Amino acid sequence: LNDKGKPMTRTAPPDLLQGTLDMMILKTLSTGANHGYGIARRIHQTSDQVLQVEEGSLYPALHRLEQRGCLTAHWERSESNRRAKFYTLTTRGRRQLGRELKRWDLLSTAVSSVLAHATPRKAQA
Amino acid sequence: MNRAEAASERREDAIDAEIAFHIDCLTRDLIEQGLLPEQARHRALAQFGDRDTYTRQCRRIAQETSMTLQRINFGLTIALGLLVIVLGMRFAQVQTANQATLQSINTSMHEIRRAALTASAPARRAARPATDFQAPSGTVQVAGAVARPGTYMLPDAASLSLGRLLAASGGVDRFPATVTVHRESETGSSVAHELEIDSLERMMTEDIRLQPHDVILVTTRD
Question: Which residues neighbour B150 within 8 Å (Cβ) at sequence distance 6 or greater?
């Protein structure tokens, strides 16, 4: 069963676009501090379970963002009363998120434009 | 185990704990969704991906961070050391320059003092009165019929007149009075000026310039 209680299918969900993981982590943390598992769950839920990331890949990305100063981390008790590493967005991370979102807007607009113009030609062919 | 190794071990333990927390939470959630514990654990591990690979990647990033911090620390230490050396050298230079300046000032002052003493010695010897009494240099004596007879300093010999001196000594007791100015010369004391004063106004308007070692005698008729 998935998060919505529906049966899990064997079909693989769309791969996460390369380079968008950092942006999604930063965007998720812009609403408040969270641990790695919480971030994975939130990405999964907010994408309506479409985006299925191999959850372990979050951790190298989180550590690299922390190394670059986009995130800070501290250990504290989680909701299950276990010690967990919580990440917080820094000012630098917020600026980085702004840049990533602009780049994403440009990219998605460009891709949409290409697809919109490509469709009639395909129909003609 | 040295400090670097201990810190490295702590970083690795933290990474292991972080990943273990994730897999445990995921397993718990899958159990709550209806899977058996063994199935849930299996599914959680699969959903997490290659645990060893991600652990290694995280450790490498942590190591890079540590090395970067060590390089920054090393660089800052070197920069600070260089700054201390440069400031120390600069301070030594300034101190040497100050000492040289002070030495130069002391030498100049010593030369000026010696030149002044050499220049004033003959004049003092020549101006010495023939009497036993020797008045201090730069002073004049007032005696006779004045309110405060005695020795008066000449603050500025060029500007001190007889009238001002008589006023400073309290004024002449009675008018008319005879004022005699005795002045030292190469041959001894002699009368330089003698004048009759018949009023206070006349006394103040007398513009005889006094010189060091002058002796002023004031006498009245009675």
Answer: B141, B142, B169
Residue range A72-105, pLDDT digits in tens: 999 999 888 899 999 999 999 999 999 999 999 9
Find, in chain A, the residue whose alpha carbon is nearest to that of B17: A84
CB A34 within 8 A of CB A26: no
State how far the Cα of B58 lies from the Cα of A62, in Å rounded to an integer: 9
B26 and chain A: CB distance < 8 Å anywhere?
A: yes
A84 min Cα distance to partner chain B (Å): 6
CB contact under 8 A, A78 and B53: no
Q: B12: which chain A residues are within 8 Å (Cβ-Cβ)?
A: none
The pTM of the full predicted model, rounded to 2 decimals, is 0.54
Q: Tell me which residue of B25, B69, B62 sits closest to B47, measured CA to CA.
A: B25
Across the A/B interface, how many CB contacts are shorter than 8 Å?
69
Of A67, A76, A75, A61, the residue nearest A26 (C-alpha): A61
Question: Residue A71 pairs with which residues in a beta bridge?
Answer: A89
Residue whose tokens read 């967005």: A89
- What ipTM was assigned to the predicted interfaces of this complex? 0.77
Q: Give the type of residue at B60.
A: R
Q: Which of B103, B220, B125 is nearest to B172 (CA)?
A: B220
* CA-wise closest residue to A62 among A73, A53, A51: A73
Nearest to B142, CA basis, from B130, B156, B154, B129: B154
Q: Are B22 and A60 an interchain contact pair (Cβ–Cβ within 8 Å)? A: no
Give the A window 63-102 contacts with B, CB below 8 Å.
63-64, 66-67, 75, 78, 80, 82-85
Confidence of residue B125 (pLDDT cuts 50, 70, 90): low
Judge whether A86 and A29 are in contact, CB under 8 Å.
Answer: no
Q: Measured over all CA atoms, what is the biggest interatomic distance in chain B, rounded to whole angstroms?
A: 144
